[in-house]
Amino acid sequence: MSRARLLAFPAALALAALPAQAQFNLNLNRLLDAGKNLKQATNEVGEAEEVQIGAEMTAKLLGAAPLVPNDALQRYVNDVGRWLALQTERPDLPWRFGVIDTADVNAFATPGGHILVTRGLVARMRSEAELAGVLAHEIVHVLKKHHLKALQKTAQLELANTVAGSYASGNAGALQRREKLLSAGSELFARGLDKDDELEADRLGVVIAARAGYDAYGLPSVLQTLQAMNPADSSLALMFKTHPAPAERLTALESMQPVMDATAGRPQLAARFNGALGR
Amino acid sequence: MRAAFLAALLLPALGLAEPATVARAVDLKKDPASDAATLAPLAEGTKVEALERRGGWTRVKAAPGDGWVRMLALRYAGAGEAKQGDLGIVQAVNVARTGTSGTQVATGVRGLDGAQLANAQPNPAQLRKMDGYGVDKPAAASFAAAGNLEAVPVDYPKAGP
Fold first, then answer.
1. Whole-complex ipTM
2. Phi, psi (5° rounding) for residue A33?
3. What percent of chain A has pLDDT over 90?
4. Is B85 in the A-facing interface, judged by CB distances under 8 Å?
5. For A195-206, how does the pLDDT look when each residue is reduced to its tens digit (9 = 90+)?
6. pLDDT at position A173, please?
7. pLDDT at residue A34 greater than cutoff 60
8. Fewest CB within a 10 Å sphere: which of A38, A140, A202, A228?
9. A-chain residue closest to B88, CA distance
10. Mean pLDDT across the stretch B115-139?
């Protein structure tokens, strides 16, 4: 029995004893209990469970900012997003896309295929190719299970720390553990993924946009728009905190220039995009 | 004030310049293509005016004349690279881009910060609403066809940057 499992097991018992468990807790707990180590745990999470965890994280994001009340716009981003997702190795996930009602400039992916982009970011785009670039970046986070892996890592570390400390503090320790588990998902969005995950999402996102037939310079165009904004703008605070600087991401995308150049002259669909936004 | 706002609104459409800096040494090309004639080499840090983008190329006004440079090599004001005076212009353009969306950015409303995300209560009704917007494969394919989007096989790059 590995050290990780030894540490996770008492936590599982403590959690099971608490009334009114949130489903989110149970899922996290099962994840942890199933994993002897990070790699194995990731492999053992079934697709249904991945989707369930992601749906709960999405419900929480939607609690922070609801969908923009515009059916045509929401359907449009689902058209673009699903077409992109069909070009990937996971075309049959229950992919869902949405625009949330906040001036903040950001986008979020949760495990299993729920993807949200903010009104503030969409408002700064100029074409469907730019929207496709951003959605494709988020789709890669889902394909590569970046959040799922980070979530498991975080929860395991926190459990290891708090379980060790809880033997002295009894019930207080159990409560503390439960709170830590509950917040693990949302803390992830506040803290961000590893830089390598973000740069990978940029590189592979460009490929997915190219496969879908778009001018694949959409993503770097958006990055250039962000790079041109005043970094002190508060609507950028969370995104800049959780992502590498746009200038660094642009430089990193130079390796993808041949792929993007091969899409020269392909549709950008600015008119269809502006129409969907009511511009 | 209103006239200034309208002028800013028209900037991108008219192709008026946006101040930019060349982030690395690049060639100023006569046309937007790698095999086009080189007009002049531009050293890292050269100031240019960006005019329009076509694919991976941006048309710029530079000291040696008008030409095309790799779009990925350009950095715009706002990231602390430009002079203080340049910031105002870029901000005006960004305000304009927001303004044309018809979805005015509300002032005085705080953006999504980490604490807000952490403290949010789940909204299952909104999740159900989002799930209701799902698009099936045939619908996605007709949407693509309507935009003349054709699926093309493209390989992922080998692992690593």
1. 0.80
2. -65, -35
3. 62
4. no
5. 999 999 999 999
6. 58
7. no
8. A38
9. A230
10. 94
pLDDT digits (tens, 9 = 90+) for A49-100: 889 889 989 999 999 999 999 999 999 999 999 999 999 999 999 999 999 9
Mean pLDDT (whole number) for B37-49: 97
Kindly compute the dihedral angle of the four CA atoms of residues B137, B138, B139, B143, in this order, to the nearest 10 degrees.
Answer: 100
Distance CA B100, CA B10 (A): 10
Pairing of strands B57-62, B47-54: antiparallel
Domains, chain B, ranges and CATH? 2-99 (2.30.30.40), 117-146 (no CATH)
Indicate the average pLDDT of chain A.
83
Q: For the range B151-155, what are the long-range contacts, defined as Cβ-Cβ under 8 Å and sequence gap of 24 or more?
A: B151/A86, B151/A87, B151/A211, B151/A212, B151/A213, B152/A210, B152/A211, B152/A213, B153/A211, B154/A207, B154/A210, B154/A211, B154/A259, B154/A262, B155/A207
Q: How far is CA B45 from CA A104, B19, B76, B142, in A?
A: 31, 12, 11, 46
Q: Give A278's contacts in chain B (Cβ within 8 Å).
A: 102
* Residue B7 pLDDT greater than 70, yes or no: no
pLDDT attached to residue A45: 74
In terms of residues, how long is chain B? 161
A235 in contact with B at a CB cutoff of 8 Å?
yes
How far, in Å, are A6, A82, B32, B110 from residue A216 at the CA level?
48, 17, 16, 33
What are the residues facing B57 on neighbouring strands? B54, B70
Q: Which of A229, A260, A272 sits opposite B78 (nearest CB)?
A: A229
Phi, psi of A27 (to 5 degrees): -60, -45
Mutate which of A82, A182, A268 to disrupt the B interface (most B C-beta within 10 Å)? A82
Contact B21, B45 (CB under 8 A): yes
Which 57-116 residues of chain A touch chain B by CB within 8 A?
58-68, 71, 74-75, 78-83, 86-87, 91, 94-98, 102-106, 114
**Does the pLDDT at position B118 exceed 90?**
no
Structure tokens at A89: 């190795």
Give the best-scoring range by mean pLDDT among A2-16, A101-115, B2-16.
A101-115
**Chain B positions in Cβ-Cβ contact with residue A104 (cut-off 8 Å):** 111-112
pLDDT band at B101 (very low <50, low <70, confident <90, very high): very low
User: Closest approach of chain A CAs to the CA of B122, in angstroms?
Assistant: 4
| Token duo for residue A209 | 């946009």
Q: What is the mean pLDDT of residues A125-139?
A: 97
The residues that bridge with B69 in the sheet, in sequence order, are B58
Asked if A132 and A79 touch (Cβ cutoff 8 Å), the reply is: no
In angstroms, the separation between the Cα of residue B6 and the nearest Cα of chain A is 16
